[in-house]
């Protein structure tokens, strides 16, 4: 079991993700997948759905070159439907935290590009002011404009690093505007 996530189990060349009654098995070869599947079928009644097209709201697109893209276009449509319109001021304040939570799920799943803005906005969920609501609407407009973006993973080594805010500078000093993101090898946002 992974120390960082109690729902992820692994052994060499194989990873099993479990969420309630959904299982996702990834392995270096089909023999490993079949071995895990047989072991699970000995304990549970399973339906093999084949190559995953969707898992926990994340869609998978497979390409002929062996790469895979992930996205949450359907979830984005729902979020935009729920929160994309300008709301009366009091109703917007009441729904601010709900919108932030919905966007956090998107951020964790497939959209790390909204992490910094969402991190700033999430500091104000208990008492959002009108300018926070304006910033949330801007973030929603950005998501709408980029809703078809996806992350594509190719075979090879995955490397990534960044310092998004110079190690925790205060919001008011403006230093967070000067971040230094680095390229991520073998993963690209389309």
Automatic annotation (TrEMBL):
The record ties this protein, via InterPro entries, to:
DNA/RNA_pol_sf (IPR043502), RVT_2 (IPR013103)
Q: Name one Pfam family in it.
A: RVT_2
- Signal peptide feature range: none
Q: Where is the Reverse transcriptase Ty1/copia-type domain?
A: 14-84
- List the protein's name: Reverse transcriptase Ty1/copia-type domain-containing protein
């Amino acid at each position: 079991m992974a120390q960082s996530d109690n729902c992820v189990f692994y052994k060499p060349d194989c990873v099993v993700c479990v969420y309630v009654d959904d299982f996702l098995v990834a392995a270096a070869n089909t023999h490993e997948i079949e071995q895990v599947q047989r072991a699970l079928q000995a304990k549970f009644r399973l339906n093999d759905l084949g190559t995953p097209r969707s898992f926990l709201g994340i869609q998978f697109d497979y390409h002929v070159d062996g790469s895979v893209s992930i996205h949450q276009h359907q979830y984005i449509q729902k979020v935009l439907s729920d929160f994309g319109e300008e709301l009366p001021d009091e109703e917007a304040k009441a729904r601010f935290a709900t919108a932030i939570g919905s966007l956090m799920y998107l951020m964790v799943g497939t959209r790390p590009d909204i992490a910094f803005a969402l991190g700033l906005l999430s500091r104000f969920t208990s008492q959002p002011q009108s300018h926070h609501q304006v910033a949330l609407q801007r973030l929603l407009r950005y998501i709408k404009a980029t809703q078809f973006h996806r992350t594509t993973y190719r075979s090879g080594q995955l490397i990534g690093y960044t310092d998004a805010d110079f190690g925790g500078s205060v919001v008011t000093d403006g230093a967070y505007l000067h971040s230094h993101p680095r390229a991520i090898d073998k993963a690209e946002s389309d």
